[in-house]
Inverse folding.
């Protein structure tokens, strides 16, 4: 049987080459023409043509020169990651945390923007956009994508919000469409705990193909990666554990919690902290006391009580998902640290439901914002690579014989053996 050859047009092959070279520069940093040619598998004349096209498109720039073993110095080229940037947002009850990031995920600037009583989704994004770009020294017109973390279930297909937490001023329907029409860039609205799960993955959980992040603060939620992919559910509400009724076994130590939010949410935590004599007045004070005196009898008693409750919350997760790992995140779990994780595991083992490990989070600071940064950086990278084909389409391509071109491991077979850019 003869091999099937799929011919490629010269324009398509140029796009494949140019995208491969730009990806290489994004991943590996500055390179010379010859290095680009060697690593993409094209000839040096073709490599020079690739560099010329990318430079003309404003996607790369010369950054200096290096001395080779023989001959004159060679110019090095780097991807221009300032061409398009992304805006990452963590939308909070009383403000918005914002960052501007480039295609490599580098944070160029950040801002904490307080909100007014008459806040809206548009005003929140606009204020954060302006402040973060000003801090980064980047024109606001360079923002090409937005990712916003919110305290709500976000439907990935419609952008609608439901099971909303503390999110004043934001509409519930068609939020994404509203923002995209206003700002004329792609917008992602994502559940805050899901973004914290992405941040956890990028912080060092990559070896775990499946893990769940249990977030406990004022409210509770769950983010889960299954086979390396974030699980949203049919309408984005996967992980909304707070609405589950408590099992009857909880009556042994709690006779007035109706659901899991009642069992471990912020109000119950305050009540338990006061009951065990932890010093302070309110949620923030109790967290501070846990961190300041983790070995005090009051804190030890609180952690023991709370770990038993967390084990109850984790039981349905283990039964249905059976993740390799459960990570404890959110303000309450961060304050409890390793001791809270150990106590929780001990109580979960008593239920005859084992789990590989229960561990404290690796991302105690700004996890939602860091997750948004990772997602929008990937979006910006795609936008930057898409500009390769856009530039070729806008400027046309000269006729050339159909050819065989190898780009890395990708080969397009055709009739003519020669290579061109």
């Amino acid at each position: 049987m003869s091999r099937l050859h799929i011919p490629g047009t010269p324009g398509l092959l140029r796009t494949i080459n140019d995208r491969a070279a730009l990806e290489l520069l994004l991943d590996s940093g500055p390179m010379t023409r010859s290095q680009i040619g060697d690593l993409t598998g094209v000839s040096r004349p073709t490599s020079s043509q690739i560099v010329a096209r990318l430079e003309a498109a404003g996607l790369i720039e010369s950054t200096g020169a290096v001395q080779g073993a023989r001959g004159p110095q060679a110019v090095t080229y780097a991807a221009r990651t300032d061409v398009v940037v992304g805006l990452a947002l963590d939308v909070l009850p009383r403000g918005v945390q914002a960052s501007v990031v480039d295609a490599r995920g580098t944070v160029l600037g950040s801002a904490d923007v307080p909100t007014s009583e008459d806040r809206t989704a548009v005003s929140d994004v606009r204020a954060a956009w302006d402040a973060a770009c000003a801090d980064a020294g980047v024109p606001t017109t360079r923002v090409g994508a937005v990712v916003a973390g919110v305290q709500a279930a976000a439907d990935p297909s419609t952008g609608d919000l439901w099971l909303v937490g503390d999110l004043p001023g934001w509409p519930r329907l068609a939020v994404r469409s509203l923002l995209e029409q206003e700002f004329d860039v792609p917008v992602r609205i994502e559940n805050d705990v899901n973004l914290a799960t992405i941040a956890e993955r990028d912080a060092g959980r990559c070896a775990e193909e499946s893990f769940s992040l249990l977030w406990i603060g004022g409210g509770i939620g769950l983010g889960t990666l299954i086979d390396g992919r974030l699980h949203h559910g049919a309408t984005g509400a996967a992980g909304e554990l707070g609405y589950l009724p408590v099992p009857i076994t909880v009556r042994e130590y709690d006779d007035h919690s109706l659901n899991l939010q009642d069992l471990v949410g912020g109000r119950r935590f305050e009540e338990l902290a006061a009951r065990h004599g932890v010093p302070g007045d309110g949620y923030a004070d109790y967290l501070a006391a846990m961190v300041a005196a983790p070995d005090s009898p009051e804190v030890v008693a609180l952690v023991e009580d709370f770990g038993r409750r967390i084990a109850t919350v984790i039981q349905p997760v283990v039964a249905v998902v059976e993740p390799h790992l459960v990570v404890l995140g959110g303000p309450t779990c961060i304050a409890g640290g390793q001791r809270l994780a150990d106590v929780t595991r001990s109580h979960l083992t008593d239920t005859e439901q084992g789990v590989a490990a229960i561990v404290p989070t690796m991302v105690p600071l700004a996890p939602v914002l860091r997750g948004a940064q990772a997602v929008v950086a990937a979006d910006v990278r795609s936008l930057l690579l898409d500009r390769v084909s856009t530039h070729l389409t806008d400027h046309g391509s000269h006729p050339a014989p159909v050819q065989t071109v190898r780009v890395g491991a990708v080969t397009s077979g055709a009739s003519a053996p020669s290579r061109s850019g």
In short: DSSP finds twelve helices and 17 strands in the chain.
